[in-house]
């Protein structure tokens, strides 16, 4: 089994050390880089191309949302999961809109964080348990969705893909379930993101659930 490569982005050295020690407990994960500010994080994300980036929200002078945006603009393909103290609804929604693949809180149990890190690195969408109520609010329409209603424009296969995204499946798992090539899944996901104006798999999962495909 290949080892999954992680990068930690946080402006507190003590916290970075703690996360590194946590990751070191799993032989299938390895920290390949750390960054203490946004500019360094974007540069290292491009150079190191880790499988997963753990990104803090509250950093100076560039906050985590701006770092996330610049990474996506730089076409960083790594999975990016926010790991922060903020459970504010607007922060969660902004992060998902800008392309985050998950949102975890720093006060979660270390064992849960490690488990969700593994899940995220393997392509699943991860949200802390505290995010469940927010997700429900988005689904009910109490918070604005960033995507226009494009249900009528979707093909049957695209709806199948959305149903699997709503379950948090990776491209490989989707390919196996739908009996199609993984490359075909990637093409469908790319087209879905463009068609529905989505920027992350989490946002796609929310859209699918809100429209009865979850």
TrEMBL record:
CDD domains: LuxR_C_like (cd06170). Residues 147-212 form the HTH luxR-type domain. InterPro entries: CheY-like_superfamily, Sig_transdc_resp-reg_C-effctor, Sig_transdc_resp-reg_receiver, Tscrpt_reg_LuxR_C, WalR-like. The modification 4-aspartylphosphate is found at residue 56. GO terms for molecular function: DNA binding. One of its GO terms (biological process) is regulation of DNA-templated transcription. Pfam families: GerE (PF00196), Response_reg (PF00072). Keywords: DNA-binding, Phosphoprotein. Residues 5-121 form the Response regulatory domain. This is DNA-binding response regulator. It comes from Halomonas cupida.
């Amino acid at each position: 089994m290949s080892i999954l490569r992680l990068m930690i982005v946080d402006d507190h050295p003590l916290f970075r050390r703690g996360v590194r020690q946590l990751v070191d407990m799993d032989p299938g994960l390895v920290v390949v880089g750390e960054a203490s500010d946004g500019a360094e994080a974007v540069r290292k994300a491009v150079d190191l191309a880790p499988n997963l980036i753990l990104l803090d929200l509250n950093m100076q002078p560039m906050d985590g949302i701006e770092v996330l945006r610049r990474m996506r603009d730089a076409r960083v393909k790594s999975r990016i999961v926010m790991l922060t103290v903020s459970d504010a609804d607007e922060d969660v929604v902004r992060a998902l809109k800008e392309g985050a693949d998950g949102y975890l809180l720093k006060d979660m149990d270390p064992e849960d964080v490690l488990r969700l890190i593994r899940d995220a690195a393997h392509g699943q969408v991860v949200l802390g348990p505290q995010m469940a109520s927010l997700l429900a609010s988005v689904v009910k329409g109490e918070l604005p969705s960033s995507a226009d209603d494009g249900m009528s424009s979707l093909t049957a296969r695209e709806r199948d893909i959305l149903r699997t995204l709503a379950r948090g499946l990776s491209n490989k798992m989707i390919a196996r379930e739908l009996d199609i090539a993984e490359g075909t899944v990637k093409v469908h996901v790319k087209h879905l993101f463009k068609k529905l104006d989505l920027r992350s798999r989490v946002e796609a999962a929310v859209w699918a659930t809100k429209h009865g495909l979850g």
